[in-house]
C-alpha cells in the first residue's frame, strides 16, 4: 500500500508545491521541534501534522504500518529518556536503579512525540516530492554546486529502490523459512540480518552508480538545467500553513507556561 496515491500526489496542493518551498517548511518545522522539549509543543504539533498529512492524501495508518520501526524507536527513546532524565516531582516508579518521576516522564513523553512529529515531516516531504523537481530547486533556487545536486537526486531516487529491495529480502527469507518464528529474539535477529544485507546491497549499488556517473562526466563542470522552477499561489498557501504548525504549537505551549527548550 502506497503512502500517497501517485495520481493524487500530483493533484494535491502538497504535490503541486515547489520542492524549494517544501524544503524551507520542512527545515523550519524540524528546527522548531528539535529545540523544543515539552510535551505540549510535541503533542499539538503531532496532531496538526497528522491533519496536514490526511489533507495531503496520505493515510496515517498506512504510514504507521510501513514505518512502524521508526515510531517504535521513538517510543523506546522516550522510555529511555524517562529512565535517564533528571528526576523531579513525584516519584512514580522505583525499581532500584530504574526510577521514573513526573518530571522525567514528561520529558520522555515529549521526546517520544517529538520523534513521531519529525518522522511525519520527513514522510510528507519524501512522499510528495519528485527527484527532478528537487534537483532543479537545489540547483537554481538555492544555487548549490552541481556535484552536490546530482548526488542528492541520485540518493533520492535510490530510496524507493531500497524500500523495494527490503520487501524482496523479506520475501526471500520467508521463502527459505528463515525468520518464520514469532519469538522476539528471532524477530530482532532477523531484522538485524536483513538490515545488514540491505546495507551491503546499498553500498554496492552506490559504488556502481558513482563510477557510472563519473564516467559520464557528471559533476565535472558547470551544467545547464532544463526546467526553471516556478512558484504559484499554492506555494504561498503551503508556506503559510506549514509555518503555522510550529507557531501554533509553540504559542499554545507558551500560553500554558510549559514551553522548554534543549538549551
TrEMBL record:
Major localization listed first in the record, in broad terms: membrane
InterPro entries: ABC/ECF_trnsptr_transmembrane, ECF_transporter_component
Listed name of the protein: Energy-coupling factor transporter transmembrane protein EcfT
Chain segments annotated as transmembrane: 31-55, 67-85, 105-127, 148-164, 236-259
Lineage, opening ranks: Bacteria, Bacillati, Actinomycetota, Actinomycetes, Micrococcales
Keyword set, alphabetical order: Cell membrane, Membrane, Transmembrane, Transmembrane helix
Pfam families in the record: CbiQ (PF02361)
Membrane topology designation: Multi-pass membrane protein
